[in-house]
TrEMBL record:
Top EC class of this enzyme: transferase
Coiled coil region boundaries: none
Record protein name field: Homoserine kinase
Any matching Pfam family: APH
EC number(s) recorded for this UniProt protein: 2.7.1.39
Catalytic activity: L-homoserine + ATP = O-phospho-L-homoserine + ADP + H(+)
Gene Ontology BP terms: threonine biosynthetic process
Keywords from the named record: Amino-acid biosynthesis, ATP-binding, Kinase, Nucleotide-binding, Threonine biosynthesis, Transferase
Length: 325
């Protein structure tokens, strides 16, 4: 989440009159993330008891044409028991609006906090929640191409070009070599499904060791199912700087996923390659954003080198260590 478009409070208050949400009490911009403009809204509520919502304005990588996919996916998952935030319709039944020249939605607020240093038990709960999501996603009829697939990584690398050297000497060559490796080894015959594709700790809400919500589905797409676990692995089992691998978190994450869904033998064999792809994907998007984020944006830039360290780990790790025995 982030704030690129600044919306005056009076415009937000007028926007809310379309809903049974009450009047605006406060609006706070949310600085985390890099994709959309987000505000936490406090309102009087339709009955005066007070309520919270997330107001999202879509920009940058989110294509307005993709929003029905995201909305229908969350309806599908929610109907099957997944703890996901619903898009709220106005009095005319419309979920998608326009605000400050941007597509905009009012979204349910879920309780819980995002973790900074997850424990193994919290990693286990997240693995289980991801497995439950994959089970719930079965039968979802829509598809969305992953624009950040192997072809998308090549495109991002080309757009970064020699600017990689602003981040670290030799990074351009390292990325080129890894792309060549993945071109030769990326699996093409594993089960595919709708995946979250961005299940970082800040997209999992928790109270204690219990998951209370999975949020931010704007990268969700149709791709290799086990790749979703690889992305989650890259986000949950390392220190923030990518320098330390936590084997206990990794084993717990794998055990949680196994309890709710599980991996096939082929998925398990391909998992180290999928992890290398996940690390490269976030190295590239972080590098691109590091180079191109406007200096006046209220946004927290994320260190690309934290994912270079993950990539180096995956390239040399014993495969048996990634998810535990």
């Amino acid at each position: 989440m982030a704030v690129y478009t600044h919306v005056p409070a009076e415009e937000i208050d007028a926007f809310l009159t379309r809903y049974d949400a009450g009047r605006l009490v406060s609006a706070k911009g949310i600085a985390e993330g890099v994709e959309n403009s987000n505000y936490l809204l406090e309102t009087t509520g339709h009955d005066g008891s007070g309520h919270r919502y997330i107001l999202t304005l879509y920009e940058k990588r989110v294509d307005e044409a993709d929003l029905p996919f995201f909305m229908d996916l969350l309806d599908h998952l929610g109907a099957r028991g997944c703890l996901v935030p619903r898009f709220i319709a106005d009095r005319d039944g419309q979920r998608l609006q326009t605000l400050s020249g941007r597509p905009a939605c009012l979204i349910e607020f879920l309780t819980g906090i995002s973790l900074t240093e997850p424990t193994p038990e919290q990693a286990r709960a997240t693995g289980s929640a991801l497995g439950e999501l994959h089970r719930a996603a079965e039968g979802f009829p829509l598809e969305r191409r992953n624009t950040l697939d192997l072809a998308g990584w090549h495109d991002l690398a080309a757009r970064c070009g020699e600017d990689f050297e602003q981040i670290a000497p030799g990074l351009a060559v390292r990325v080129r070599d890894e792309l060549a490796f993945l071109d030769a080894h990326w699996p093409t015959d594993l089960p595919r499904s709708v995946i979250h594709a961005d299940l970082f700790p800040d997209n999992v809400l928790m109270l204690g060791d219990q998951v209370t919500g999975l949020i931010d589905f704007y990268f969700s797409c149709t791709d290799i199912r086990a790749y979703d676990l690889a992305i989650t692995h890259s986000a949950w089992v390392f220190s923030h700087d990518g320098a330390t691998f936590f084997a206990d978190r990794a084993a717990a994450l794998g055990a949680g996923y196994e309890s709710a869904h599980g991996l096939t033998d082929a998925e398990r064999a391909a998992f180290p390659i999928l992890c290398r792809g996940a690390a490269l994907r976030f190295l590239l998007t972080r590098a691109y954003d590091w180079i191109n984020t406007p200096p006046d944006a209220l946004v927290t830039r994320k260190d690309p080198l934290a994912y270079l360290r993950r990539l180096d780990f995956y390239a040399s790790a014993n495969p048996a260590d990634l998810l535990g025995a």
